[in-house]
């Protein structure tokens, strides 16, 4: 009998202990907030697969793959509204976008460049399709000249004094696969993100209306796949989005000794990059939208992540970041004050 009572007491005690408290499991732990104060304030599901975005005044212009060009009104950034969508005459897969005055340029790979007059944003007009600068990957505009990265073909230059009718000029070969372009403020150097080859630097000081000979003056290997490039005004620093290798920071003050001075292995696949006020803003595919503090270039710090489905391109103003996300469409993110 005593043994039976002891067994019952032990059973009751173990039941009480088992039922007391809530076990600490991963499901009960609040996820750490890594946003850094950057918050999504609007999502807009676009009819196409959003690839890139550029903002001008109160309008957004979006390259959306086979969906051509989409224009949105963001007078209220928390409530984007469709202005127009242009598909007819836009050939190929529009992946990158740039703009001069009231003219939009769309990079469509093997279908070259599409030119769209958006002086009336409600009735855009395609003025040129399949412009033979291909396979077009991205753009850079310097005054009246359009630089187009054309992958293994290097960089093509066109005169856009008449923005709706580009006039192809010279071309320069680049090692690797030209993906992103930027030019220094003094228009002396052109820097090209060249895929698996890294960063190439060309002397364009003898520009000759785009017909000049542009010698390769330096090259440096980078890890990952160099996709996009941003320069710093007044400093010889280049920030590269390098795919799986994240952010790579290059010092090119001495073209005989171009070298990496800092890096950050960000999550995802770094695709597009903007530099502003000691911060780098990055679209990183499955890694979403990311912000890095680069005030100390030797020690970049990740200070914000906003999860998105598949971030590919972005633009920024003083208050918001606009992300082209292939799955979601447009994502508007507020900048913390």
Short description:
This protein is mainly beta and 337 residues long. The chain has one helix at residues 2-19; strands at residues 39-44, 52-56, 59-63, 69-73, 81-86, 96-100, 103-107, 113-117, 125-131, 138-142, 145-149, 155-159, 167-172, 180-183, 189-193, 199-203, 216-220, 228-231, 237-241, 247-251, 259-264, 272-276, 279-283, 289-293, 301-306, 311-316, 320-325, 329-334. The strands form seven sheets. The chain has a four-stranded antiparallel sheet, with no helix packed on it. A four-stranded antiparallel sheet has the order 2-3-4-5, with no helix packed on it.
Structure overview:
- By secondary structure, the chain is mainly beta.
- The chain has one domain (34-334): Methylamine Dehydrogenase, Chain H, CATH 2.130.10.
- It has one helix at 2-19; strands spanning 39-44, 52-56, 59-63, 69-73, 81-86, 96-100, 103-107, 113-117, 125-131, 138-142, 145-149, 155-159, 167-172, 180-183, 189-193, 199-203, 216-220, 228-231, 237-241, 247-251, 259-264, 272-276, 279-283, 289-293, 301-306, 311-316, 320-325, 329-334.
- It has a 4-stranded antiparallel β-sheet with strand order 1-28-27-26, with no helix packed on it. A 4-stranded antiparallel β-sheet has the order 2-3-4-5, with no helix packed on it. Strands 6-7-8-9 form a 4-stranded antiparallel β-sheet, with no helix packed on it.
- The longest helix is centred in the N-terminal third of the chain and has 18 residues, at 2-19.
- The termini are far apart.
- Residues 1-25 have low confidence and may be disordered.
């Amino acid at each position: 009998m005593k043994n039976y009572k002891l067994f019952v007491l032990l059973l009751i005690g173990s039941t009480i202990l088992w039922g007391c408290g809530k076990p600490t499991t991963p499901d009960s732990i609040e996820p750490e907030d890594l946003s850094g104060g950057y918050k999504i304030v609007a999502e807009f599901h676009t009819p196409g697969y959003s690839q890139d975005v550029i903002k001008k005044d109160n309008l957004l212009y979006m390259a959306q793959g086979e969906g051509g060009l989409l224009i949105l009104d963001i007078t209220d950034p928390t409530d984007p509204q469709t202005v127009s969508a242009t598909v007819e005459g836009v050939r190929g897969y529009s992946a990158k976008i740039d703009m001069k005055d009231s003219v939009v340029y769309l990079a469509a790979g093997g279908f070259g460049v599409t030119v769209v007059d958006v002086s009336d944003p409600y009735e855009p007009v395609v003025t040129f399709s399949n412009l033979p600068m291909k396979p077009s990957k991205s753009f850079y505009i310097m005054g009246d000249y359009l630089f187009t990265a054309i992958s293994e073909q290097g960089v093509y230059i066109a005169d856009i004094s008449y923005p709706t009718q580009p006039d192809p000029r010279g071309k320069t070969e680049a090692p690797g696969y030209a993906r992103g372009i930027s030019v220094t403020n003094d228009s002396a150097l052109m820097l090209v993100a060249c895929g698996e080859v890294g960063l190439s630097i060309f002397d364009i000081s003898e520009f000759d209306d785009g017909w000049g000979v542009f010698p390769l003056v330096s090259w440096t290997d980078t890890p990952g796949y160099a996709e996009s490039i941003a320069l710093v005004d007044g400093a010889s620093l280049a920030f590269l989005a390098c795919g799986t290798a994240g952010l790579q920071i290059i010092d090119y003050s001495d073209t005989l000794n171009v070298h990496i001075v800092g890096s950050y292995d960000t999550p995802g696949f770094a695709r597009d990059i903007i530099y502003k006020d000691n911060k780098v803003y990055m679209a990183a595919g499955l890694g979403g939208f990311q912000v890095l503090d680069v005030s100390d270039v030797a020690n970049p710090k990740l200070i914000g992540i906003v999860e998105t489905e598949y971030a590919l391109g972005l633009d920024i103003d003083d208050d918001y970041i606009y992300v082209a996300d292939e799955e979601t469409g447009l994502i508007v993110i507020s900048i913390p004050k």
